[in-house]
Write a structure and sequence with these properties.
The protein has three domains: about 140 residues, Beta-Lactamase, CATH 3.30.450; about 90 residues, Helix Hairpins (Orthogonal Bundle); about 140 residues, Heat Shock Protein 90 (2-Layer Sandwich), CATH 3.30.565.10. About 55% of the residues lie in helices and about 15% in strands. The longest helix has about 50 residues. The strands form three sheets. A five-stranded antiparallel β-sheet has the order 2-1-5-4-3. It has a five-stranded mixed β-sheet with strand order 7-9-10-12-11, with helices on one face.
Length: about 450
């Protein structure tokens, strides 16, 4: 399907349409008014010619009148102007205007109808504006063709049409350029907001224009700056709390451990002390995860740059976690590549990422579940994949679970802190890898792969 037309493009096209309608309306009105003005001027010129000859006739100089008419006829061989004199005494008609009967005043003559006896040369007009004047000698009539009015109208239409076409083309081109520029800027804003939504809070629009979009981009950048500062403050608070509570928890553990091992205490007291130790270990594990995640995201952890054999690393992970899988009723399988797959990175962190992904599948898949750890090399790029046949994660939540403390189990009945996948995402980013959560039909497939 073709992409829908953007609002900017629709607005530009609408402006061009309004411009075209306005130009057409102005051209039409100009044509009507100019045609009316030229018709009136033609009628006035015709009347003036007839009255000029009428004054000669009124003077009673019949010979001079006939000479003037003959001179006008000779000089107008193109039939643009026609003249006639109807003698009142003899009824004789003299001149080039072949009327069957004289008239007085203004009249429009149609060739072939009002002028049936006239010759019809190729350059003769279709209609004439005529004016008749009655004198003592007879009737003097002058007529002028309307071709000048029609030709002027046609010239006006052609000129208007060319000017409108050129102006419309320029306006559409300008509107298209402006719309495309705005579309690119809006697309850039959307891309920045998408990356911010994915967790890259340091992204900025940085539009240096001077229009409304630039002001909007500046406001968004200011808002993103405040958002980044707020999130950084919250992250720092959680890191500081985790750091400050580790020492008291360690001291508390040291004090409780002898009680859990003291055989002189009642069994119930030793059991409660042991349970407290387990809770302390779980809390310490969460704090350790927070601190590791904070150090990874801040870049304070020095990343080792060794050549890591991912297949060998995956074997160690499977060997480490296979007993836990059997205890939970799951089956853990390793899919090895046909050739060695290596990448440059920190082996300890990469192993931590694999362990977190497999452990995440253990905790969220009801037994018995099939869990697979696969290593592959696609076009020279390393890829780590952990898949299961459990309940999976709904598509709208797959990006959200990569954030800190996000757990889809709102009842908190499943053990965990909501930091496992966040830690995996941070390790992937530090190694120049991308994390993708996809449907395994059924289940979930999590892949870490190097950028192209």
């Amino acid at each position: 399907m073709s992409a829908p037309i953007s609002w900017s493009m629709r607005f530009a096209l609408a402006l061009s349409a309004v411009f075209a309608i306005g130009a057409l309306s102005a051209g039409g009105l100009s044509y009507v008014f100019l045609s009316h003005e030229m018709a009136q001027r033609l009628a006035a010129d015709t009347r003036a010619s007839a009255e000029s000859l009428g004054r000669i006739a009124a003077a009673g100089d019949r010979i001079d009148l006939i000479e003037q008419i003959d001179a006008h006829v000779v000089s107008n061989t193109d039939h643009a102007s026609l003249y006639a004199f109807f003698d009142a005494q003899t009824g004789e008609r003299i001149g080039s205007l072949m009327l069957s009967a004289p008239f007085e005043g203004a009249r429009r003559l149609i060739v072939g109808d009002d002028l049936p006896s006239m010759p019809e040369p190729a350059d003769m007009a279709d209609a004439y504006q005529a004016y008749g004047v009655r004198t003592d000698l007879g009737w003097v009539i002058a007529a002028r063709d309307e071709a000048w009015v029609a030709e002027s109208g046609e010239l006006l239409i052609q000129t208007t049409a060319w000017a409108l076409a050129l102006a419309l083309a320029l306006s559409v081109a300008l509107a298209f350029v402006v719309a495309r520029r705005n579309e690119r800027r809006i697309a850039s804003m959307e891309a920045v907001l998408d990356r911010v939504g994915a967790g890259r809070l340091d992204e900025r629009i940085a539009d240096h224009g001077r229009d409304d979009l630039a002001r909007l981009g500046l406001q968004i950048d200011r808002m993103l700056g405040r958002l980044e500062a707020g999130v950084a403050a919250i992250t720092q608070v959680s890191t500081d709390v985790a750091h400050d509570l580790r020492a008291p928890l360690s001291r508390l553990r040291i004090r409780l451990e002898p009680l859990a091992l003291d055989t002189d205490l009642p069994e119930r007291a030793r059991h409660e002390a042991g349970s407290a130790l387990e809770e302390i270990d779980a809390i310490s594990g969460i704090f350790d995860a927070i601190l590791r995640l904070s150090r990874l995201q801040s870049g304070s952890v020095e990343l080792r740059r060794d050549v890591v054999d991912l297949t060998r690393l995956a074997r160690d992970v499977v060997e480490l976690l296979e007993p836990a899988a059997e205890d939970a009723g799951h089956r853990l399988t390793l899919v090895e590549p046909k050739s060695i797959v290596t990448m440059t990175g920190d082996a300890e962190l990469l192993m931590q990422a694999m362990v977190n992904l497999v452990d995440n599948a253990f905790r969220h898949c009801p037994a018995p579940a099939e869990i697979t750890l696969a290593i592959s090399g696609i076009e020279g790029r390393a890829q780590i994949t952990v898949s299961d046949n459990g309940p999976g994660i709904p598509a709208p939540d797959r990006q959200r679970v990569l954030e800190r403390f996000v757990r889809l189990d709102t009842s908190r009945s499943v053990a965990g802190s909501g930091l496992g996948l966040s830690l995996v995402a941070a390790i992937a980013e530090r190694h120049g890898m991308e994390i993708a959560l996809e449907d395994n039909a059924p289940g979930l497939r999590v892949s870490l792969f190097q950028f192209a």
